[in-house]
Design goal:
Largest sheet: 5 strands, mixed
CATH class of the largest domain: Mainly Alpha
CATH superfamily of the largest domain: Tetratricopeptide repeat domain
Number of helices: 32
Radius of gyration: 30 Å
Number of domains: 5
Structural class: alpha+beta
Strand content: 5-15%
Shape: elongated
Strand order of the largest sheet: 4-3-2-1-5
Number of strands: 5
CATH architecture of the largest domain: Alpha Horseshoe
Amino acid sequence: MEIVLKYYVCAMDKSIQLAKVTKILGRTGSQGQCTQVRVEFIGDPKRCIIRNVKGPNEKRVVFDNFESWAGVPSHEHAMAATLVEALQALLLNEMYDDVIYLGSIVETKDTMCLTILGEREHYEAMQCYALALFERGLYEKAKFVYQTATISKTFLKKETIGLSEAYLEHEFRIVKSFINVGCLNEAVGLLESLIAKHRSFKLLACLADCYFKVCDDEKAVNISKEILGEFPYALYTLVRVLNFGMSDEVKNKIETWTSKNGLKLRELLGESWFDDWFDAQIEITSRNLLNGLMCLKKVAEVLKENAVILRQLAAVSKLCGFMIEAADYYQKCFRFDPYNPEDLDGYIALLLSLNRTKDAEAILWHLITHFKFSVQTYTALAYFCRYSFQIEEGFSYAKKGQGTVNMPHFEGYLIAGILLAEGPKPKEAIPYLHKALCMNPRRFEVYETIVSVLIKLKRYEDAKETATVCIYRIGSTAPTSTLHAKVIIHMEIIDSNQDNSSSDGKSLREATCSLESALKMSPYYLPAIYTLVDLYITKSEYERAEAYLTSVLSVYKTHPELLKVMREVKWMMGKLDDYDQFTAMVEDAKPSSLNEAMSFNAVQNALRSISSSLEMEVGSLTERDENNENLENLSEDALQTVTPETVGVWPELRYLALMNAPARNTRNRRQSMNSNRSPFNP
C-alpha cells in the first residue's frame, strides 16, 4: 500500500506542500493499524520527522505542532519559542514600546538571536513588531515590516474570556477612552480601582505609562520595576526605569536584577552585544556619557543597521558635543529605517545648526511626502521657520507638533519654548519648557533655553542653579560645561557694570578653564568655540582668537557665523585686507538654498497664497470629498503664484497648505501621530 503523507500551509488561499514521505519504517500500534513513516521537509532534507499514519492519505497543517521542526536542536527550539512568546506576551499586555524595542533587535539581520529563529518564529516575531508599530501610528514602517515577512498570514491565538474578564476588558476600554481624550487623572483613578480588584500586567503597564505622563515618576518607576520582574525582556521599560529612577536604591538592585534576569536575556538575545548594551545604559544613566558612548559603539558593531542603537548613539553624541558625529549617525539611521519618522525633526534641527540647509530640506521633503500630517513634519517646519526668522508662523507649526494629551511629542514643546524664548515675551516660554523637561529630563536644549529665559528675566542666580542642575542630570560634557561658563561670564559682566569697577578676573578665569575643558572633550563644539573666542576678544587677546578660529575653520570651512566672528577679529587687529576677504566669504557663505526653487522660503511664499484659496474650499468639503479629487481643483490665482521651478513639487505644496487650512474633518490630521517614545533620546 502506497502511503502519501503531505504537510501543507495555506498561503494566499492556496495550499503549499512543505514536506513529503521519503521512507516507510514499518507497522506500529497495538494491532498494527498504523504505519510508521519518515517525513522530510522539501528543500531541507536535514529536517525530518517520524509520524504514525492511520490511513493512506492524511493532510495536516505543519504549523499546528511545534514539534514538526524536528531538525532544530531542542535547546534552540526553546530559545526561539521564548523569544516569540516574549513578544506576544508584551503585545497582549499592550506594552507596545517594549515590543518595538525588542522587535527592532530581532529585525536586525545579523544579530545573534536570529540564528535560533526558524522561518515561522521569525514571521511571528515580525508580526508582533508590525502590530505594535501600527498601534503607535507608524503605519509606513508597520507596512514595510509586515510585507517583508517571509510566511503567509498566521494569527495570534485568541483566548476565551469569562464574564469577569469581559467586565474588566470593558472597564479597560473606558480607561483608554479617558487617555485618548486627555483625562489622565480620571484614567489613573479608574486603573487603580481596577488593579485592586484584578491585578494584571496589562493594567499595570498602562498605569505606569499614565504615571509617567502626569510626571509622578516615583510611582511609575516602582510599578515598572514590578513589571520587569515578570517581563525581563521589556527593554524599553528597563531603559525608562534607569533614566527616570536611577536612585541609589535602583543602583543597588541592578546587580540583583542582572543575576536573576540578565543571564536569561544574554542567552536569549546574544551575549556578544547585550553586556555592552546594558553597560551603556548604566554608564549613561550614571552620567558617564563618554564611557556609555564607547559601549554603544561596540553594540553598533554587532547590531549593524539597527535604528534603535543608531538613534541612541546620535542622541548621546549630541550630549557629548559631537555634533558632526551625531549627524552621521542620524544619516545612517535614516538610510536604514526611512519608514520611521521618529527623531527626523531633531535631525533637521541639528543639520540647520550645522548650516547644512540642503540636507535639512531633503529630510523635510521626505517628511512632507511620506508623513504629511505627522507631528515630526509640523515640528520640522517650526525649526525651518526659526531658521528663517518667521517666529509667529513657526510657533503655529510648533503647536500642531505637540501631539495629543495622551501622546505628547517632546520636540513640539521644545521648539515652542525656544521660539517664545527668542521673542519679545520670553516668560511665556516657561510652561512649554517645563512640560518638555518633565517629558525628558536629560535633554540639554531644554536647560539651555531655560537659562537664556532666566537671564533675560534677570534671574541670574536661578540661571546659575539651572546650569548646575543640568550638569548633575546629564553629566560633565562639552555642552553642559559651556552652559555653566556662559552663566558665569554673564554674571561677571553684570557685576562689573553695577560696581563700575574692574573685576579681579577670578570668575573669567574659571569660565575660561571650563570652556577649554569643554573643547578638550569636544574640539569642534560650536557654542563653546563662540563663547571662548568672545572671551578672548573681551580680554583683547586677538592673536589667540585668530589662531583658534583658523584651526576651527579647517573643519567648518564655510560656516557663516564663524566667518563673521573671524571678520570681527581681523577688524580688531587692523588687518583690513583680511577683513575685506572675510566679508566676501561671508556673502558667499550665505545659505544659497534660500534663493533656490526648492528652498523653504519659496515653499512658504507659495504656501501663503495657496492657504488663502484653500480656506473656503477645504472648509466646505465633506468627509467623502476630502479623500477625492476635489482638492486638486484649486483656484487659478493660487496656481499662478507658484513659480515654474516649483511646479514639480506641487503635491508637497498642497500637503503643506492642507496643514494650515481650517478643514472640518481632522481625521487625516491625526494620521501618523506618534510620540517621541525613546526615553533615552536626550
